[in-house]
Amino acid sequence: MIQIIRVLVSALTILLALSTQVAAAVVGNLYDDQLLVASQSRAALTEGAATALERVFIRVSGKRQVRDNPVVAAALAKPEPFMTQYRYQRSKNAEGIDELELKLSFSPRQVNATLQSAGLPIWSANRPAVLVWLIADTIDGRQFIGADAGNELLSALEAEAQRRGVVVQMPLFDLADSANLSAAELWEMSVDDVREASARYSTPFILMGRMSQFSTGQWIGSWAVLQGSESLRLDSEGMTEAEVLAPPIDYLADMQAATYSVAAGAGSSANTMIHVSGIKDFASYASLVTYLEGLAVIQHANTVWLDQDQLILELVLNDDMEKVRRFLSLDGRLLESTADAQSVLPRPVRGYYQWAGQRL
What we know:
five-stranded mixed beta sheet, 37% helix, 28% strand, DUF2066 domain-containing protein, DUF2066, signal
């Protein structure tokens, strides 16, 4: 009976789950950062800007360490030219103490150019979503984080994900999730049960974990990263939530960046022709080109042929077509299709695609 309930409830809610996937696969404010500063002095601004810029370089490159690179080090020594805007905001923290926060935005063009000059990769904002199932053993018992409980842990998780530019998606914790996965099953780190409960979300990566805090204040965590049929286990510990959450987030960022980032000089910059159908109007055309040229793997998307709702685009690549396919598979906006047997194209193409726009 439980299995029947799981199937029925999942079928009723799968469309809602899929609708959340697209938004979760884009990192917002990739080139922005914020931090606390002691004052609004020029020295504090320069120091804060350097710290924030280093964080941006880490997120955009997908590398944990960038300061040792001489090109990056030179940029961090003089961060002001990279800034497009900054502002201060005063507020009180949880203890009622006044704090001064510096919020900065940096030029994507200059950041990317510096990373290329440094020989470091660029990882664009279109990134795989990670569904996170997390349970914590607290004084209130074992509770799912994000299900109206564990707000401090959830904030720490989101901060760690933001540090590395990892897109985290929490479950809806609705009736379907309650039927599909119990706290006991997650605490036992049952990979099969978590995979089954996660099917409705269709995210390419899953992070499952459990955390406990000892009376000394120390945290320990046990994790499993799932991708398709593969899984990897790791453990972590620390005196703060951030310390115990950092290892799985770092692992995910390293693994994703290795797959989706584009290294300077990695490709042959070869031009590749693709056929795209489903272009209904100029707005669709503009959205398609903007989308493609926003991917780190594509320098330019030039139209070489147009006929009614179909066109041929010449892609100038920073890498190979296989990496393009990896990017396109993330959000389902440009879907692979098959050739029309009745259609004769004026140019040879490497692939056929259907433009779905914002839809999956």
